[in-house]
Amino acid sequence: MIAASTAVFGDAEWALRLPAWLAYSGFLWALFYLAQEVWDSRVAAWWAVVLGLTTPAFFIPTHAMSTDAVLFLAWTLALWSAYLALYKAQPLAWYGFGLEPIRRWRIEAKMRHFEAGFSVF
Fold first, then answer.
1. What CA–CA distances, in Å, run from 64 to 28, 49, 73, 98?
2. Ranges of each domain in the chain
3. Which tens digits make up the pLDDT trace of 32-86?
4. Alpha carbon of residue 46 to chain centroid
């Protein structure tokens, strides 16, 4: 990511950080839509974005060039896919979670613990 950014934009500090900023923006977008899907409220979705913007665990690593922003984005998209698959009965969402090939090997039994923890939210 860094190599592609610096190859296109040159050796500038903002070019080094651009991939993290883009991934962080994608994380906030995914967080908004996940919260809106779960709570069916735009107000709750905006509060989730505010928390994502102000929580040091999210804010600090994404403004220093690290791969944490990509991890946050991937994790949020995986949670969104799992929510759609488990609670909205959308079987194609398992592809977003990366578990469709494994699901046939009794992943539902293993996901019961995840489902129980996820239903708290």
1. 17, 20, 16, 28
2. 2-118
3. 999 999 999 999 999 999 999 888 877 777 777 777 888 888 888 888 998 998 8
4. 15
Helices then strands, counting H and E runs in the chain, come out as: 8, 0
Residues 6+ apart with CB under 8 A from 64: 17, 20
**What's the pTM value of the predicted model, to 2 decimals?**
0.74
Which residues lie closer than 8 Å to 18 by C-beta, 6 or more apart? 5, 9
Residues whose CB is less than 8 angstroms from the CB of residue 52 and which lie 6 or more positions away in sequence, other chains included: 27, 28, 31, 58
The whole-angstrom separation of Cα 33 and Cα 77 is 10
Tokens linked to 81: 């896919």
Q: What gap in Å lies between CA 94 and CA 96, rounded to an integer? A: 5
Smallest CA-to-CA distance from 25 within 6, 49, 9, 44 is with 49
b/e per residue 16-54 (b: at least 16 CB within 10 A): bbbbbeebbebbbebbbebbbebeeeeeebeebbeebee
